[in-house]
Design a protein that fits this description.
It is a single chain. This protein is 47% helix and 17% strand. The protein has 10 helices and 10 strands. The chain is flat, with a radius of gyration of 19 Å. The strands form 3 sheets. It has a 4-stranded antiparallel sheet. A 4-stranded antiparallel sheet has the order 2-9-5-6, with no helix packed on it. The protein has a two-stranded antiparallel sheet with strand order 3-8. It starts with a helix and ends with a helix. The chain is α+β, with helices and mostly antiparallel strands. The chain has helices spanning 2-9, 14-30, 33-39, 47-57, 59-62, 72-80, 142-145, 167-174, 178-204, 214-225, and strands spanning 83-87, 92-94, 99-100, 102-108, 111-115, 127-128, 138-139, 148-149, 153-156, 160-166.
Amino acid sequence: VWVKHALENLNVPAALQRRVESLHYFQRMSHDHEAITHLFRQGNLSAPLEDAIRIVLYSNVVKSPVLVNGGPNYVLEVVRVLDDRMYVPGDYVARRGEVGNEMFFINRGQLTVLLAGSNSDFVCDADALENKLEKGSYFGEIGLVRRSLRSAWVRAETYVVASVLHRASIEAIWEFFPQEREKMVQRVAATCEKDKHRAARMKQDGSTRTPADTAVVVAEQQQQQQ
C-alpha cells in the first residue's frame, strides 16, 4: 500500500505505476525478497546451514559451465556474493552501449537478445534473435574480465529472476583463486574469437550487424543442444 501511495504522491504516470505494482506482486507471489532477507539475517542460521541453503537456492548457477568445475570452496565463495534481481516483462536487463561490469545467470523466465540494425543504433530498429535466453542461460562474463560496453540489448519477455555476479565481488574472490580467473579469461577469449568469425561471416553475407557477446553464444548453444 505504501508503495502505491508513494507513487501517487510523486505523480508517477499510471502506466509506470502498474509496472512497479506488478513487480512487487511478483516478488510476493514467487520470490519473496523479505523472506530471504529475514532468513539470512545474522543469527537466524549457522554458517554451514546458510551455505547449504544458498547451494539449494542457486543450484542452477552452481550447475552452469562457469562454475561446474570450480571446486566446492570456489563455488561457495561465489554463491555467497550473488545478488538476486527480478524483472517484469518489457524491462531491459542489459542495454547496448552501457558499461558491462556484471554477469547474469537466468533462474526463471525468458529474455530476448536484440542486435543493432545495420543502419541504426536505436533499440526500436534492433533485430531480435529467434532463440530466447531462459533458465540455465547466462551472459555478461566478458564484463568481469574486460572493461567493455554491452554490445546488445537483453529484454525480459516474461517475469524474470536472475542472479547477478558483480565484477568487484569476483575480483576479490579471484585474488585467492587465480586459476579460476584464468579459466574465465580463456572462456571470454574463446567467446570473442567466435564473435570475430561471426562478424566476418556477416560481412561476407552483406550484413553489418554487430554480433552480441555471450548472450548470443549461449542462445546459439541452446539451439544446438535442442
